[in-house]
Amino acid sequence: MDWQLLGLSFIAVFLSELGDKSQLAAIALGGGSKHPRAVFLGTAAALLLTSLLGALLGEGTAQLLPTRLVKAIAAIGFAVMAVRLLWPEPTLNGFGDEASNLAGSPQASQDSAAQ
Predict the structure, then answer these.
(1) What is the pLDDT of residues 62-83, one digit of tens each?
(2) Rounded distance, CA 26 to CA 93, Å?
(3) What DSSP string describes 51-94?
(4) Burial of 26 (0-12, 13-18, 19+ CB in 10 A)
(5) How far is CA 27 from CA 21, 22, 36, 86, in A?
(6) Sign of the dihedral defined by the CA atoms of residues 62, 63, 66, 69, in that order
């Protein structure tokens, strides 16, 4: 057992899950339930399963592709997401996409008619 890798994996997942939507779902479920232990067991099982799938997918990917290429693809993907978050696409009305999706707006009427 590689204890350093175990600790690094624990810290990485623990920090990335803080404030995550899965944690918020667990808070909502636990707050409205008389059985928080069941909520804990259910959410822990779900996290274990998703982590197992991620580890298996990572192992399979590592066998097919060089590690350096996988890291480069991940880095580029995160950089693209960061740029998209920092510089959203400009809109004509200046209010973002949400304003054009409001019910009753001319754009929303055109979109629903086109579908």
Answers:
(1) 889 998 998 899 899 999 988 9
(2) 38
(3) HHHHHHHHHHHHHHS-HHHHHHHHHHHHHHHHHHHHSPPP-SSS
(4) buried
(5) 10, 9, 9, 29
(6) negative
Q: Rounded CA gap, 111 and 105, in Å?
A: 10
Joined together, the tokens standing for residue 15 give 């920090």
Cα–Cα distance measured from residue 32 to residue 39, given in angstroms and rounded to the nearest whole number = 10
What is d(CA 97, CA 88) in angstroms, rounded to the nearest whole number? 10
What proportion of the chain, given as a percentage, has pLDDT over 70?
A: 77
In angstroms, the Cα distances linking 14 to 11, 19, 76, 109, 114 are 5, 10, 24, 44, 45
Mean pLDDT of the chain: 81
Global pTM? Answer: 0.52
